[in-house]
Write a structure and sequence with these properties.
By secondary structure, the protein is an all-alpha fold. Helix content is about 55%, strand content about 0%. It has helices spanning about 5-20, 30-35, 55-65, 75-85, 100-110, 135-140, 145-160, 165-180, 185-200, 210-215, 230-245, 250-255, 260-275, 285, 295-309. The two termini are about 20 Å apart.
Amino acid sequence: MTERNFIKDALLGVATGDALGVPVEFRSRTSLIKDPVTGMRGYGTHRQPAGTWSDDSSLTFCLAEMLCGQYDLKNLANRFVNWKEYSYWTPHGNVFDIGMTTAEAIMRLQTSIQPTLAGGTTEGSNGNGSLMRILPLLFYIKDMPIEQRFKHVQEVSSLTHAHLRSVNACFIYLELALAILNGQSKDDAYKTVCHELTDFLQNEEAHHFGDILSGQLPQYPLEKIHGTGYVLRTLEAAIWCLLNTGSYSEAVLQAVNLGNDTDTTAAVTGGLAGLVYGWETIPADWLNVLAKRDAIDQLIANLQAKIYG
């Protein structure tokens, strides 16, 4: 077996899932039952060509790029500003999709505010905008003690989403990804997270994650799983889709066809599925149309060199 490139698995996993969901974002589950997504489409909701990824991947790439150098939240903040204002790390030179909480936070980042104080702190600021971009942080924190991992997750989430519920969601997601990175099967990784984080997460927002950490989430019926923009629902959906399918393509198509926030649900699912199954299992016809593939591959190589030498 060839040595895995987990960074490539993760980043291509996110971007491909994202691109699958872009053309049907905001479509209802009912409409997608009648016309399910089975592969890469073009145009649709945002009138973008096939293979176009959204803000989910743009901000993921900004984080990955920052991590190619020093861990520097001001540097990351500047990249976010350049994305919003100057279309940095966009697939076709324009920003066509941005969440309200993220947009407001980036406006604050344009001032002299400390980056970790820019993110929304109200209960209504718990969209999935930090969860969708957090995965590259895995490779920076993977060898740290759990307390340090949590600290860094909180910092990076807080640039746009500082509420503890969003931070917890990002942390659970990365802990699941870490267990997979460390060689556990997806099912064992989920059990590990349920066991270890039930003890570790004792903050005032932890009770919101009872369903996820119960160990019973995979048994929930499809009707209880929702691909909405609320961070808790997105995390539930991504884990459910991963654990109830048997391949990368099955996982991300299940995520897209949940409807609603299709690109983000599939991006978050796709990052995990990429780590489980490997980027080589992503259908070639999907990868071949992925926007800015050469630039993504160069970013992957740069981060690989930084993290693994």
